[in-house]
Here is the input.
Amino acid sequence: MKSIYNITLENLEKILVENGYKKFNASQIYDWLYKKRVKSFDEMLNIKNALKEFLKENYTLNTIKLIDKQIDIDVCKYLFELNCENKIEAVYMKHNYGHSLCISTQVGCNMSCAFCESGRLKKVRNLESFEMVEQILKIEEDLNLRLTHLVLMGIGEPFDNYDNVINFIDIINNPKGIELGSRHITISTCGLVPKIEEFMNYDKQVNLAISLHAPNNEIRNKIMPINKAYPVEVLIEAINKYINKTNRRVTFEYIMLKGINDSEKCALELSKLLKGINCYVNLIPYNETSHIDLQKSSKEQILKFYDILKKNKINVTIRKEFGSKVSAACGQLRSIHEEGK
Here is the structure.
């Protein structure tokens, strides 16, 4: 049986009309699901009994289960179990600009980035749109708040699950649904160039972030296998096409790894690579894990790197550190839970 949370408003309207119901019933159902947040179809008071029975016979609600939660200052890590008993993670972060959530888009990941815990958790399957929607609903209910920002940067490569991700965004962006503004949604990709080129034709102003993490092919090949398929120069060419088409700024994420990509030479190379591109760089202190033999750069080295980019007129920020006490790096909580069995 399918989840009602998998259906866009437009498709729900078509389904209802095809089955003899009214088009406006779809808006009523969306209101109950996403504004009033009911837990059963029987709670939809202005829906006729015949339609309630149709919904109960064909659709489900509330399929994922919260099984663990870890809390630290301004951050909360969630572990969910799916119907198939696989597990996914999401991380809530409180910022001075609002409430942000980072969600998973796959069970595991095949990109095998050297610094990422999820790279050890090979892809089992793509998440359906409803499984992404429910991460938002469950966490908003748990925290008793409405999220203001969403990042698709948890377990999984979003562009390796492109169709389900786009369907998900269409659902949550709808004014009659969760109504999360497209400019407050960010998709992060390790650099699947064909999907970047497809995404530039998407009609919503969703933000694009690129997990770059190296200024050249030599380093990037070592820490990000995807670079062998889409080298840095090919990726940058695709980004320039994207910017020219959409007129939107791109974020480049750069995890600072001690002795790997944090030298002054790397900073100068990165400055040269990104010169003239409408972008900003987000320097990310590495969240160390016992399973991966990599270390975070020192604060002093990160500041040196930052200063070089600034001097070369690159827009750059250093991301606030979150979650070292709650295993907030991608995939860590899931790994800990699996090992504890």
Notes: The mean pLDDT is 95. The chain has eleven helices and 14 strands. The domain at 2-60 is CATH 1.10.150.530 (DNA polymerase; domain 1).
